[in-house]
Design brief:
The chain is 38% helix and 14% strand. It is of the alpha/beta class. The model has no long low-confidence stretch (mean pLDDT 98).
């Protein structure tokens, strides 16, 4: 597995296994177990996914040492408060059954309950995350679904700049302006829903590019992410697809293919975090 290097020097595998919408229990345990068995060493979960216990059990039962697995979770919308965020971090560590996290993210920048004071809420949660980072509970900290103005507001009070921003990035949703801002600030872009939550599979242009490259549509979409400098987080509960999604390091898309994929239509877009209903 190839790695990116975060701004603090931490190595992060270039592809991760996403667990959004994978149910706690047998489904999450089996999916993560299979992913770790076939070559993934980066797992992404979140408090709101409700599957931290099963993800942690799969990690504990794997043949990999803890230090060989990169593990991410996220602080949910009801924890945008210093004390609540502190408690939340410890709760996630307990549920996952680990002594430290490799990456911890604020999940959304402007939750509905704190829409009138989101800047203060983010700053409070970030302070708790910075303390966890300094204490060695977390190896890197970052954000998710943050647009440029959310990051700029956070940087007004932050001691530590976010190492990562995890947003929806997929062919047809390249978010060029946000990407440039993050790159200029040494913030790595992670791509959740890199297959557009499945919407890319019905795109005829993507099918044609996949056929021409001798790859699947999913592999082409994930390769697009890598060549854009993103870190894709594909999710699947199907063993065959879990394995196939790793097979993206043996080909390159042409500059023309990349440009076409940037502009395809019909693929799911990023939600506006300032107007979400949660």
């Amino acid at each position: 597995m190839e790695n990116y290097t975060l701004s603090n020097g931490v190595q992060i595998p270039k592809i991760g296994f996403g667990t959004w919408q994978i149910s706690d229990g047998e489904e999450a345990y089996n999916s993560v177990s299979h992913a770790l068995k076939v070559g993934y060493n980066h797992v992404d979960t979140a408090q709101i996914y409700g599957n931290e216990v099963s993800v942690g059990k799969a990690i504990a039962d794997s043949d990999l040492a803890r230090e060989d697995i990169f593990l991410t979770t996220k602080v949910w919308n009801d924890k945008h408060d210093y004390e609540l965020a502190k408690a939340s971090i410890d709760e996630s560590l307990e549920k996952l059954g680990v002594e430290y996290l490799d990456l911890l993210l604020i999940h959304w920048p402007n939750p509905k309950p704190i829409r009138d004071h989101w800047r203060e809420g983010n700053a409070a949660a970030w302070k708790a995350m910075e303390e966890a980072y300094k204490a060695g509970k977390v190896r890197a900290i970052g954000v998710s679904n943050f647009m440029q103005h959310h990051i700029e507001a956070l940087l007004e009070t932050a001691e530590i700049k976010p190492h990562v921003n995890q947003v929806l990035l997929a062919p047809g949703c390249p978010q060029d302006e946000l990407v440039k801002f993050c790159e200029d600030n040494d913030i790595l872009l992670e791509a959740y829903s890199p297959l557009g939550t499945g919407t890319i599979f019905s795109n005829e242009i993507a099918k044609e590019i996949a056929k021409a490259n001798g790859k699947t549509v999913a592999q082409v979409a994930l390769r697009w992410s890598l060549q854009k400098g993103f870190l894709p987080l594909p999710k699947s509960v199907t063993p065959k697809n879990i394995e196939s999604n790793l097979n993206i390091f043996d080909f390159e898309l042409s500059a023309e293919d990349l440009a076409i994929l940037d502009t395809i239509e019909g693929v799911k877009a990023q939600k506006d975090p300032d107007t979400t209903n949660f």
